[in-house]
Amino acid sequence: DVLLTRSTQPSRQTTQSPTTEDCMAIVSTLPVFEEGSIGYLEALEVFLKKPTRQNFMVPKTNETKMEFLKRLIEKEK
Question: How many CB atoms lie within 10 A of CB 11?
Answer without folding.
Answer: 5
